[in-house]
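Dear colleague,

As promised, here are the two records you asked about, laid out in our usual form so they can be pasted straight into your sheet.

NAME FIELD: protein one
SEQUENCE, THEN STRUCTURE:
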Amino acid sequence: SANVGQNVYIGHHATIEENVIIGNNCHIESGTYIGKNSTVGDNSKIYSNVSIYSGTIIGKNCIIHSGTVIGSDGFGFAPIGGRYVKIPQVGIVTLEDDVEIGAGCTIDRGVTASTIIGSGTKMDNMVHIGHDTVVGKNCLFAAQVGIAGATIIEDGVTLWGQVGVSKTLTIGANAVVLAQSGVPSSLKGGKVYFGYPAEDASIKRRELVWIKRIPELWKKVMES
């Protein structure tokens, strides 16, 4: 049976499995599933039809919007004998305090440890976080950001819409990556990046200006 705190609302058809701990003043709407051995901290709100897999830890003052899945298996397969064999996923997801997750997001569990979302981080709708990724405090991710497994996102990083981040790299603190950029390798903190591969945005913009001038320059060369 679950351990439910004071002044908790649990909506119709919500499913709370055994050994779940729900703190005080929580609000859990209809159709949400919380797997066994999970924890929901005080004052957290979980909207309808959220799926929270077993062992997930949710901190205080968190908000999770409808349709989000937390703790599903990571995309881990090993090529063996000409086919892909699933790597067991036995880790968890930890959301620290004051995290907000938008609608339709997916956060994969760690393979053996935790996928961690740092306190104060906010995610828009349709964001994907891969297994074993560690996201720092007070980060901001806009819609359709995708981050592959075992990546480190340091504190205060902003990723705007449709940014794609490859696996096992680090984005330094307070970096900003502009919309639709691709990040295939680590980035230093405190800079603004754009493009694919993501580079210093001021340099990338100058490159785009020169690219637009190529036809004009080519014409001058051919006429000389």
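NAME FIELD: protein two
SEQUENCE, THEN STRUCTURE:
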Amino acid sequence: PGQGGNVVLYGHNTKKLLKKLPQIEPGSVIELSMDSGRTYQYQVSSTMTVGPKEIDAVLPTDYDKLTIYTCVGWADSQRFIAEARPLE
């Protein structure tokens, strides 16, 4: 975060990790706290469910973006993605 581009975070769809990610809605605020003590805030701009081969959301960008995703669906057959932009 803070260095430009697409920050991509993946976590398993488990109770302690990203089980609730599919409930997030556009407009929600996500806060990332770094080991340095710095905090970054992002606002969710979109969510989507895609197949495992659809990787456009995790590719590098020339603008600041946060992408968080996890597996969903029967036998983890799909990916749920939340995209967010930095709050100023």
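A couple of things worth noting about protein two: The beta strands are 6-10, 29-33, 39-50, 65-72, 78-86. The chain has a mean pLDDT of 95.

Best,
R.
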